[in-house]
């Protein structure tokens, strides 16, 4: 009997495990298929009882459990480049999930290599972006790795067409099922944001029910006095936050980001409700809360405009657009995305200084800024001081620039006259 079990073994798989119903069922199912399962839980800033999840994974038959705190590297190596880029997907989405996936998958590959595992597995669905983000990272960092994606295998998804079948399977195999009723939408949380989608939110007309938001207070009931902050940047990255009200300061990357999450959350900053285009070709509705990310987006935009040359900034904006698209689509570990990060990083050398802002009732208000590298020349721009600028020169500047417009419209009127004849 022992021999036949050994013969059936398919080797070791490292499963990205969340402790929830889906990945718990996947863990047991992978064992049924003949895999040795190593469960890997990424602590990337979500609220989770990690010790309970460890015990659960071991009880379900995981050979080993890794709980890896990757919050700090998430901020420094993934969120900071996005802040430098002013990364926004389709003008609105700050990329909270898209930035976390390559960070989570990178550590998963490291564990697979350390353990000599030939396979990795995840619980991402077959319709979403996350499967692409996970797997492109895994293949880029370890080309020989084999991916097991149960939600794309007919023998798995035909057996579990809905939540009820998963619940039945869980009861049969002694998997603890959630005692709290399930929210009628799905959530994904990390340090940067939380997303809500599916269920009742699939109808894009349905408003988010009260009580959905978890990271931010309703701006209507948020404090009636603002928090005034100073955020100091070096090379386009925040290095210090000071609260003018109570003098609180934070200067390490992780603590600074957590602090801004608290302040923004308290004032209801960072909520968006959008319909976006998934990489796989369909539109989907998502609700997101990105508290600290929203403050930093506004603050960085301001200090960058103050310190960066106009033409460099135009090119950099184009790069940021491409960068956001690559990150959303899962190409963080591609040569083109690496190249863009390098270019954007190079553009940030002069982005140094302090932004003063107020956080209040769901909004971020910029109050002022200062920088030793500012390209703003008060004397040059002043209405009262002539400086090195000769107003009479503007006449020739306007004449030269109007030449093209005069010629274009002269021709247009000729064409119009001909047509009228």
UniProtKB/TrEMBL annotation:
One example GO MF annotation: ATP binding
Transferase found in the keyword field: no
Any matching Pfam family: Arginosuc_syn_C
Domain of life: Eukaryota
Sorted UniProt keywords: Amino-acid biosynthesis, Arginine biosynthesis, ATP-binding, Cytoplasm, Ligase, Nucleotide-binding, Phosphoprotein, Urea cycle
Gene3D superfamilies referenced in this protein's UniProt entry, alphabetically: Argininosuccinate synthetase, chain A, domain 2 (3.90.1260.10), HUPs (3.40.50.620), Single helix bin (1.20.5.470)
GO biological process: argininosuccinate metabolic process; L-arginine biosynthetic process; urea cycle
Subcellular location, record wording: Cytoplasm, Cytosol
Keyword Nucleotide-binding listed: yes
InterPro entries referenced in this protein's UniProt entry, alphabetically: Arginosuc_syn_C, Arginosuc_syn_N, Arginosuc_synth, Arginosuc_synth_CS, Arginosuc_synth_type_1_subfam, AS_cat/multimer_dom_body, Rossmann-like_a/b/a_fold
EC numbers for this chain: 6.3.4.5
Catalytic function, reaction form: L-citrulline + L-aspartate + ATP = 2-(N(omega)-L-arginino)succinate + AMP + diphosphate + H(+)
Domain Arginosuccinate synthase C-terminal: 185-408
Pathway as given in its UniProt record: Nitrogen metabolism; urea cycle; (N(omega)-L-arginino)succinate from L-aspartate and L-citrulline: step 1/1; Amino-acid biosynthesis; L-arginine biosynthesis; L-arginine from L-ornithine and carbamoyl phosphate: step 2/3
Domain (Arginosuccinate synthase-like N-terminal) ranges: 13-176
One cellular component term from this protein's GO annotations in UniProt: cytosol
Record's protein name: Argininosuccinate synthase
Species this chain originates from: Lepidothrix coronata (blue-crowned manakin)
Gene that this polypeptide is encoded by: ASS1
């Amino acid at each position: 009997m022992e021999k036949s079990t050994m013969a059936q073994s398919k080797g070791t798989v490292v499963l990205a495990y969340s402790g929830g119903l889906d990945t718990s069922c996947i863990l047991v199912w992978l064992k049924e298929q003949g895999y040795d399962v190593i469960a890997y839980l990424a602590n990337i800033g979500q609220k989770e009882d990690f010790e309970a999840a460890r015990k659960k994974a071991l009880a379900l038959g995981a050979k080993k459990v890794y709980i890896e705190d990757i919050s700090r590297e998430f901020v420094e190596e993934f969120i900071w480049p996005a802040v430098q880029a002013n990364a926004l997907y389709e003008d609105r989405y700050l990329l909270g999930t898209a930035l976390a996936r390559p960070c989570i998958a990178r550590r998963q590959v490291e564990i697979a290599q350390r353990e000599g595992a030939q396979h990795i597995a995840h619980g991402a669905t077959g319709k979403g972006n996350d499967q692409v983000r996970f797997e492109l990272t895994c293949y880029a960092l370890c080309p020989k790795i084999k991916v097991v994606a149960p939600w794309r295998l007919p023998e798995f998804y035909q057996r579990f067409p809905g939540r009820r079948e998963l619940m039945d399977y869980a009861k049969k195999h002694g998997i603890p099922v959630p005692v709290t009723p399930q929210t009628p939408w799905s959530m994904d949380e990390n340090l940067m944001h939380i997303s809500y989608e599916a269920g009742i939110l699939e109808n894009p007309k349905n408003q988010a029910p009260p009580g959905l938001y978890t990271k931010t207070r309703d701006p209507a009931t948020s404090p009636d006095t603002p928090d005034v902050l100073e955020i100091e940047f070096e090379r386009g990255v925040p290095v210090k936050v000071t609260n003018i009200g109570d003098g609180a300061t934070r200067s390490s990357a992780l603590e600074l980001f957590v602090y801004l999450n608290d302040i923004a959350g308290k004032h209801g900053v960072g909520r968006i409700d959008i319909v976006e285009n998934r990489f796989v070709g369909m539109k989907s509705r998502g609700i997101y809360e990105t508290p600290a990310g929203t403050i930093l987006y506004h603050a960085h935009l301001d200090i960058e405009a103050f310190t960066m040359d106009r033409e460099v900034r135009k090119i950099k904006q184009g790069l940021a657009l491409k960068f956001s698209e690559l990150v959303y689509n899962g190409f963080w570990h591609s040569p083109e995305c690496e190249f863009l990060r390098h270019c954007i990083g190079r553009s940030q050398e002069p982005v140094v200084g302090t932004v003063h802002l107020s956080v209040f009732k769901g909004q971020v208000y910029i109050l002022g800024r200062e920088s030793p590298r500012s390209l703003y020349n008060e004397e040059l721009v002043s209405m009262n001081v002539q400086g090195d600028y000769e107003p009479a020169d503007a006449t020739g500047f306007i004449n030269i620039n109007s030449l093209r417009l005069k010629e274009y419209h002269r021709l247009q009127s000729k064409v119009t006259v001909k047509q009228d004849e």
